[in-house]
Known about the structure:
Elements: E1 26-32, E2 38-41, E3 52-55, E4 65-69, E5 77-81, E6 86-90, E7 96-99, E8 109-114, E9 117-122, E10 128-131, E11 138-141, E12 151-155, E13 162-168, E14 171-178, E15 188-193, E16 202-206, E17 212-216, E18 223-225, E19 236-238, E20 249-254, E21 258-263, E22 268-272, E23 275-279, E24 289-293, H1 299-302, E25 305-306, E26 312-313, E27 323-328, H2 334-341, E28 351-354, E29 357-360, E30 367-368, H3 374-378, E31 380-385, H4 395-412, E32 423-425, H5 440-450
Parallel strand pairs: 25-29, 27-31, 27-32, 28-31
Antiparallel strand pairs: 1-4, 1-12, 2-3, 4-5, 5-6, 6-7, 8-9, 10-11, 13-14, 13-16, 13-24, 14-15, 15-19, 16-17, 18-19, 20-21, 22-23, 26-30, 28-29
Helix pairs in contact: 4-5
Amino acid sequence: MDAYLPNGSSAQKFSLHQVTEFLSEGAFTFESTTALKVLDVSGGSMEDDASVQLFASNDTLAQKWYVSKVSGLENTYEIECIGSAKVLSLTDDGKLVQLTANGVDSQRWHSALSGGKIALQNAATGQYLCVSGSSSTLGMVDSLELPGVRFNAKSVGVLSEGSYTIQLMSNRSQVFDVSGGSTTAGTSVGFYGSNGTPAQIWDVRKNSDGTYEISSAKSCKPLDIKNGNQSVGNGVQIWTRNEGGAQKWNLVYNRGEGYTIRSSGGLVLGFSNGALVLCQDNGSADQRFAFENATYIPATLTGVQWKGCAHYSSTRYGEDWSVIVIHISECTSLSQIDNTFWGTREASAHYGVAPGQIHQYVGLNDTAWAVGNWEWNNRSVSIEHVGTTANPPSYATLDTSAQLMAALARSKGWRHLTMGDNVGIHKWYSSTSCPAGTDVNWLVAKANQYLGN
C-alpha cells in the first residue's frame, strides 16, 4: 500500500463493517494467555456438575470444546466438551462446571475481544471468565480489561489421536470388533459385545490431508472397505496399510449424538441387520458412534524383563527419543549382556534381545550410554542383539526385535519405520563396525509388517 495526498478518488474510499462475533463454530481448545494452561474437565469426568479447571495441555477430549451458535441470537454460543457432550455452565454460586444442555442463559456465552484475544462472557450474569494470575484458578469478573480474561481459541481436530473402543450410540454395549481377534489381512470387522479384549481396541491417527486412519491396535492394520467398493451395504475389514481411499475416514462430531464415520466416497458406517456396513447417512443413532479412551499394551512388552544397569543418565536433558538404533552385542547370551551392563564398562542400552526374550536396562525416559555420541544418546532408544561378528543375530532374535520395534513405534504413533529417519545403526553415530553382519534390512521390513504395512 502506498501513501498519497487526499484526491477524492474511489481508491481512497473504504467501507467499515462492525464485527460483533469473534468465535466460529467448530472444535477448539481455550488456552489462558496468562497461565498457559487450557480449559479442562476435571478428571475427564462424564458427569453433570464436574468442575471445569485449568490444566496443562494434553490433547485429550476433556480439553476439546465444540462451539455452536445459538440459533436466532447474535454472538451467543454454547460450548460443549466433546469428551462428555455436556456444556460449559455457570452455577448460581459462581462455580464453573459442565452440565447437560437445557438452553438456559447460564449455559450460554458471548464472545468479546480483550487485548486482541478472546474473552468469554456469561449470558446470564454479564461477567467474564477470568484466570487468577497468582493461583491459575478460574473465576468470574466484571471487567474486560484484566489480562486474566484473555484466551487463545485454537481450532483443533474433533478427535485426539490415541486408542479407543468404538461404541454404537444406539446400543453402547456393542463395539467394533475384529472377528476372532485375528491379525490376518481380510478379516471382517463387525459388532460384538464389549469384552475389553485387544480385538476391540482401535488406534486413531490423523492423516496429513485431515482424514483419519482407524487401525486395529492388535495388528496395526487399518479399517478398510472390502475390495475398495464404496457402495451401500458393503462391509469392512482389516487390511495391510496402503494409504488408499478405502482406509481414509472423515470423523464428524454431532453435538450430543456422537461421531459420524464417513468414507472418502461420502457413505457412512452404520448398523444394518446386525452388521457394520456402509450406509446412506440418515442421522440415526445406528449411524453414530462414541469413542471411549482405551489402553492397549502389546503382548511383546508384557514379557519384557527389567534388569537395570550400572551406567546411564536418569534424564534425557530436555530431549525426547526420535530414533531406534540397532546394535550387535558381541555376546552369545542375554546373561552376558546383563553382566556387561552391570560391570565396569561405562556402557548400556535400553534393551537386549534374544529369541523370544527381551531384557530392559534403561527406562525410555532416561539416557543410555550407547552410541558414542552424547546428542544422539539423548535422542535415541538402543537395542542390543545377541550375536557376534562371526555369528550374526539369528532371524528368531531379529523377529523378536521386530516386534519390540513395532511396539515402540506404535507408542510414538509412527506408522512406518524407515532407515535413516526413525531407525539408525550404531556405526552412523560413532567410529565402530556395529551392528556388523546384522540383517538390518530384514529386521526393519519385518517390523513394518508388524506395524500393519
